[in-house]
Each structure stands twice: as C-alpha cells, then as structure tokens.
Amino acid sequence: MSNSRSEATHTHCPYCALQCGMTLTPATGYIPLEVAPRTDFPVNAGALCGKGWSAASLLRPEVRLTTPLVRDGDQLVPTSWDTALDRIAAGIQKVQDHHGRDAVAVFGGGGLTNEKAYSLGKFARTVLRTSQIDYNGRFCMSAAAAANNAAFGMDRGLPFPLEDVARTDCLILVGSNLGETMPPALRYLSELVDNGGTLITVDPRRTRTTERATLHLSPRPGTDAALALGLLHLVIVEGLVDEEFVARRTTGFPAARAAALAYWPERVEEITGVPVPLMRQVVARFTSAPTGMVLTARGSEQHASGVATVHAWINFCLATGKAGRRYCGYGCLTGQGNGQGGREHGQKSDQLPGYRRIDDPAARVHVAAVWGVDPDTIPGPGRPAYQLLDSLGRDGGPRALLVFGSNPVVSAPRASHIQQRLRALDLLVVADVVLSETAELADVVLPVTQWAEEDGTTTNLEGRVLLRRRAINPPDGVRSDLEVLAELAKRLDSPVPFATDPAEVFQELRRASAGGIADYSGITYARLARGEQLFWPVPSEDHPGTPRVFEERFATPDGRARFIPVTHLGPAEAPDAEYPLLLTTGRVLAQYQSGAQTRRVPQLVEAAPSAFVELHPHLAERHGVTDGTLVRLVSRRGEMTAPARLSTRIRPDTVFAPFHWPGQQRANNLTNPALDPVSSMPEFKVCAVRLEVP
Ligand SMILES: Nc1nc2c(c(=O)[nH]1)N[C@H]1C(S)=C(S)[C@@H](COP(=O)(O)OP(=O)(O)OC[C@H]3O[C@@H](n4cnc5c(=O)[nH]c(N)nc54)[C@H](O)[C@@H]3O)O[C@H]1N2
Ligand SMILES: Nc1nc2c(c(=O)[nH]1)N[C@H]1C(S)=C(S)[C@@H](COP(=O)(O)OP(=O)(O)OC[C@H]3O[C@@H](n4cnc5c(=O)[nH]c(N)nc54)[C@H](O)[C@@H]3O)O[C@H]1N2
Ligand code: SF4
Ligand SMILES: [Mo]
C-alpha cells in the first residue's frame, strides 16, 4: 500500500457516535487526504459536520506525535521505540513486583475501535492480570447503560435504527443538543416534524436543537427525574395507562405506580420549574399519539442520580405502551465514535467481551477458552473510572497507569484533583495521536496511528457495526495501539498471543462474543466491506442482523420489560448563599470532548477559539457583566475564567460552560465528582457555583 493510491477509500468519521460515512481520496496539499461525505451510508446520507470535514487536518505531522517520548526531569525527550517499550515493561514489572498485580491500571476510551478495546481488556486480564481497568465511557452513557440492562435486559443504546425516529408520532428528546453534537441527525427531527409528528424537547437551555420543537420544557438542571415522575403521575390519574401493554409485556408496575403517585403536578412544578399546563400538554400529546419515543442524552444522564432518572423515563414509556413495537421505545444517544462497541468488549471494569459480566462463572469459562488461559487467572471486577483515577498513587491504589484514548486531565470531574493523582504515580504511560494534556504529564508517550491509517470496526449509536478502512500509510515512527499491546505483551512474557492485524483480532473477538448479549459471531470484514448493514446481535454468518431488538420480546429472561420504582433525589449539591448559581456543562459544535484533537485544527479553533460562560442578561446585569467580560466561576472544587456570553436562551438561575479547554478555562475545575450509586456516573451536569468579575 502506498500514499499515492489513487482510488477512493470508503470509511467513517473519527469523531462522534453517528459515525458518518466519508470518502477519502489522496490529496496533493499539506493535508494528505481529501474528505467528502458519503451518500450511500444511510445515517448521514451526504452530510458531515465541520469536525468531519476537517478530520484529515490531524494527519499533519506538525500537530501530531511522530516519535515516542520519555521523561527526563521536567522534559519529554524523543527516544526509540525499543527504549520506550523497555522502559514501560521494566516499570510495570517493578511496580507489580513490589505492590502486586493490581498496582498497574489501564484506562481506555470509547473512541477505540472494537479490536483495540477488545485487545486492551484482554491485555489487562491476561498479561497484567490486573482487575484495575476502566474507561471514559463511564463518564458518558454508563447511567443509561445500567438502566437499559435492568429494564430491558440489554443495553443497545438505540434499540432501533435512527430512521425510525423520523417516523414516530411523538418524540420527547431529553438533554440532547444533537444540533451541535450530531448535526447530520437533525434531519431526522425535521422529517419527524414535516411528517406531522410532535417534537418535545427538555433542556434547561434553548439550543439549536430545541428550536425545532413543538413544545419545549426548560427544567432546572438535575430535576428530570421529578419531571418524568410527574408526567407518569398525570398518565396514571388521568386513566391513560396502557393496561393491556403493561399486563402483557412488563413486570413491576404496581411499585412504579405507587412511587409516581407522590409526584403530583404542583409539587413537580415546584421542583422543576416546568408549569403544570405544559406538563399536561406533553401527556396529552404523547398518550394520544399512536407511536412515541423518549430519547435521552448526557443532559439527563450525567447526574449522581442518572440511573434513577433514566428509569423514570423508561417507566413513562412503558406505562404509556410506547415500547417494544415499531416506532416506539426508549433510547440513549450514545456519544463517542465507538461508544457502543467500546462498552461491549471488555475494557469496562466489570465486563468481559460480548457484553458478558466478569463475575459470571460461565462467561469466564467461555472467554478464558478463547484467550487460552485458566478461568481462575482472570481477575474480578475493578474500580469504576472516577474511583480508579481518584485512587492512583494512594495506599492500596495503583502506582502505574496506561492510558489509551482518553484525556482525563481535561475531561474528568474535579480535574485538578485528578491531575494531582496522575502526578503521584510511579509510572504514567499515554498512547495517543497528539500530545494531550494527559500525555504532557506522562513518563512515556507512545505515538499511535489514527483512523485513516488503520482498519478496524466501530459500532455506532444504533448498534450498527461499521468497517473503517486504511486510506494512507502512517508516518514512520508511528505504530498502532495493537502493535503497542503486542510488543508489551512480548516483553512481559505474555501467556497468550496478541495479533497486530485488526482482521485477525476481529476473528478472535467474534469467538469471544459468540453467545453473549452483544453477539458479533456472524459479522465478518467481508460482509461489512460488501456494504451489509449489520446491527448486533448477529449470531451466525447467514443471520441478517437485528435492527430492531425488542419488537417480539425484551431481552430479560421472561421477555418482559421491568418497571423499576424510583424517586427524585435531585442534585448532590444545592445552591446556597455562598454558591447561589447552578453550573451545567456540555459541548459546542466545533470542538470535540477534551479538545485534544479539535484544538489542533485551525478551522475549528477559528469557529470556537475559547471557553465561555453562557448566562442570562438579568444575571449579567446584577454582576455588571456585558458580552465578552471575563468572568470567574468558583465552586467548592476550584475555579475557571472565561469570557461571558449573554443569552436569553438560558435560565437566569443557571450558567453553562463547555468543557473542551484546559488550564484556567477548564470547566472540570468546578464539577462535582458525586457519583451515581449504580453506574458511578459523575454529576457533570450540575453543581453550585458563584460568579465573580476578576
Ligand atoms: N461537537 C461535539 N459533538 C459531540 C461531542 C463533542 O464533544 N462535541 N461529544 C460526543 C459525545 S462523547 C457525547 S456523550 C455526545 C453528547 O451529546 P449531548 O448530550 O447532546 O451534549 P451535551 O452538550 O453534553 O448536553 C446536552 C444538553 O444537556 C443540557 N442539560 C444540562 N443539564 C440538564 C438537565 O439537568 N436536564 C436536561 N434535560 N438537560 C440538561 C445542556 O443544556 C445541553 O444542551 O456528543 C457527541 N458529539
Ligand atoms: N464537564 C464535563 N466533563 C465531561 C463531559 C461533560 O459533559 N461535561 N462529558 C464526558 C463525556 S460524555 C466523555 S465521552 C468524556 C470524554 O473525554 P475524553 O476521554 O478526554 O475524550 P477525548 O478528548 O475524545 O480523548 C480521547 C484522546 O484519545 C486520543 N485518541 C483518539 N483516537 C485514539 C486511538 O485510536 N488510540 C489512542 N491511543 N488514542 C486515541 C485523542 O487524541 C485524545 O487525546 O468527557 C467527559 N467529561
Ligand atoms: S456528526 Fe459526528 S460522525 Fe458526523 S461528521 Fe460530525 S463528528 Fe463526524
Ligand atoms: Mo460521551
């Protein structure tokens, strides 16, 4: 394969979970590839957002890593691969000899391909034999995942293709700003409205997304559970429960019903700020519509009561009979490029490939046979992401950490504290495409290949498995994550082989997933390359895949969906005299996540050059702030400084900041690491702050 290949490569975007189809062709300028949207891939059908269009900019050698680096005092200095890998192997050996196997930890990412996520989990469990592995998906959709598993017996973010969203009669979209986070998906909302459907949005802010809505609800941040309980209350007292559906397809309604009865409309208005008549309209529209869906995203889920909140929305769907049939159901809009696949193949602390549980003896036997190890050597569950990062360098906590595909210095809650924990390590290794803020702290940095330079599969937010293709050779000096793992395995006397060819890894992943919930055994690179649209589970090579998973039955043992009774707990931190405002955090169109990648792309920096604090003009006036004034936000964890952006689209009691920037602009200086008791999701979406003008 050479850089002068003239043919086009059909592949997918390196960024979000929409995984838009794109075509790459060789270019002659300083960016080696030209990007064009694919019209033959149904999800984006010819559209891309600015991040997709500019993705090839990161292939430029001047913005990426091209050589391994090792720490020499305060500096990171270039070195050879052998030196870097030897140093890591020796460091791991030393830490494990002195402090035991669990003293080495691994942190993965939902942007890694299925092959990488699988190999990373296998590497942790067979070579390091550490239980201490988790990943950034814990910060993303873990609340919805836990609720989906409990309610439906399966966590496929969307249990139906996105195209179904355009065909439902009533959609409630909760805490999603997909107009900025997945712009090509806006067309599904437009089609829904053009088809005469009703779009209801729930977000404390009005956004590019809520503009399309028939009805918009603007609750106080962190009160979605009360809102959903209040809607269910109205359904019950107005006699609108779909009794036949509840009896035939669900269990557990009486307890959920009893819980909702405590949330009468006036009480819910008091908690949420949503007027009672608006709640009544939502219930009337949703229950009278022949079909309906509720979709949640991070706004509703990233709370210390995220799982309970998602259950409240699921209960509402089930009671109204809007689940388990065409154009109906609950779904979670997964975020990262491989956010779905990344949670299925074993980089999560409690999981083995195929979405198996690590504490399930049968699962351990199955996976151990594929790996060629004794099941008893596979460690048990480890710490979830925040607890893992928080334990680094402490007594009983890991002393070495390998990071693949995350930048927690910017993206973890209470990030300045996490930064200190990383500094306390004996050994920090970061494999990345760029010198991220986390890589800057590392003892060894490994430069790895990126999307257009390697093959691999991702699973998009619909559970559709996709093949990304290599379009260009990586620069000399850069290796793939799979090669890194294989080299380290060799140096650490691995009991089992690690393939470096993604196709070979996928063959193994197929076997490891066979019979699991996320069964990929019928998927092959050849089928994907032919353009077959395969939604898991795909249990055999002649199986067409499963676009809609719950139409016949739910994935629970008895086939019924489960109501889980929940109550409203509210934010872990309430505003008070010292910290009177609510901060909520999220995203802007032109930047991605910790910004490690997109802050290196000129077009995107021009579109979104810095963080900002969005606040209502009334609040601004009280502080003498005008558009562009530098303001400081202070919470119990820390502070950030950024220009004010005045907007009537936000509640006067709430401010919003994006989390894509480091240093003084780092929103995660402020965020509260209060964790959900079931999923360990941190409370990114609400904490108490005060505003100062420095
Ligand atoms: N441009 C861009 N696109 C991305 C990403 C990116 O970083 N940048 N990241 C990708 C990833 S990994 C993810 S997870 C997705 C996230 O996609 P989204 O969930 O759409 O993104 P957010 O901006 O985090 O949050 C969405 C909305 O939640 C609202 N919100 C805040 N608090 C509450 C609340 O208490 N209740 C409700 N109902 N809403 C609330 C915010 O005002 C915000 O508009 O985006 C993906 N796409
Ligand atoms: N305040 C606040 N904080 C948040 C959120 C929020 O809404 N508010 N959202 C949370 C959510 S939903 C998420 S998903 C997290 C995401 O936050 P992070 O985990 O920090 O995500 P990224 O910035 O995508 O980091 C990915 C890193 O991996 C690198 N990378 C990309 N591809 C590869 C690869 O193939 N191999 C390797 N080795 N490296 C690669 C990138 O260059 C980048 O440095 O942030 C969370 N943090
Ligand atoms: S919407 Fe997501 S997948 Fe599509 S081009 Fe933008 S970042 Fe890439
Ligand atoms: Mo995410």
3D structure, described in words:
With 694 residues, the chain is of the alpha/beta class. The chain folds into four domains: 9-63, Phosphorylase Kinase, domain 1; 69-139 and 338-503, Rossmann fold (3-Layer(aba) Sandwich), CATH 3.40.50; 142-333, 3-Layer(aba) Sandwich (Dimethylsulfoxide Reductase, domain 2); 581-692, Barwin-like endoglucanases (Beta Barrel). The protein contains 23 helices and 30 strands. The strands form eight sheets. Strands 5-4-18-17-16-6-7 form a seven-stranded mixed sheet. It has a six-stranded mixed sheet with strand order 24-26-25-30-23-27. A five-stranded parallel sheet has the order 10-9-8-12-13. Helix 3 (114-128) packs across helix 20. The longest helix is centred in the first third of the chain and has 19 residues, at 81-99. The protein is globular and about 70 Å long. The N and C termini lie far apart (56 Å). The model has no long low-confidence stretch (mean pLDDT 97). The structure holds ligand MGD (2 copies), iron/sulfur cluster (SF4) and molybdenum atom. The site of one ligand MGD has 34 residues, from helix 5, helix 12 and strand 23. Iron/sulfur cluster (SF4) binds next to helix 1.
Number of self-contained structural domains: 4
**Distance separating the two termini:** 56 Å
| Strand residue content | 15-25%
Strand order of the largest sheet: 5-4-18-17-16-6-7
Count of individual helical segments: 23
